[in-house]
């Protein structure tokens, strides 16, 4: 067994696309396969950009907002997830705080989840 740490303290501040949040990488595989943990403090956000691959944004703590191609900000909280399709313009953020696991993969299938 091996143990790993992906806390905010070992993460990296992200500024791409005008963003302001901390990302801690969890896993990276072949092709465009990534899993990371995103930490949002008050008023942190991911700036609008197009998804390189399908992306599943799973909120595990706190609350915030997500936005897809139409630009409408929708509330999201712990226990909920957003799926962005390849090429879809999107953004996310929080006015308070939020922690989310993001999974990016060409083979992503979120059809097993209950829809909101």
From TrEMBL:
In terms of InterPro entries, this protein maps to:
RmlC-like_jellyroll (IPR014710), RmlC_Cupin_sf (IPR011051)
Tree of life domain: Bacteria
Q: What is this protein called?
A: Cupin
Q: Which organism is it from?
A: Bacillus suaedaesalsae
């Amino acid at each position: 067994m091996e143990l790993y740490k992906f806390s905010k303290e070992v993460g990296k501040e992200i500024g791409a696309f005008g963003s302001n949040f901390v990302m801690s990488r969890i896993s990276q595989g072949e092709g465009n396969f990534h899993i990371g943990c995103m930490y949002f403090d008050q008023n942190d956000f991911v700036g609008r950009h197009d998804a390189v691959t399908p992306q599943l944004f799973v909120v595990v703590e706190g609350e915030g907002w997500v936005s897809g191609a139409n630009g409408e900000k929708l509330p999201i909280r712990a226990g909920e997830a957003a799926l962005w399709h390849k090429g879809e313009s999107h953004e996310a953020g929080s006015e308070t705080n939020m922690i989310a696991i993001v999974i990016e993969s060409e083979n992503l299938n979120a059809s097993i989840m209950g829809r909101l």
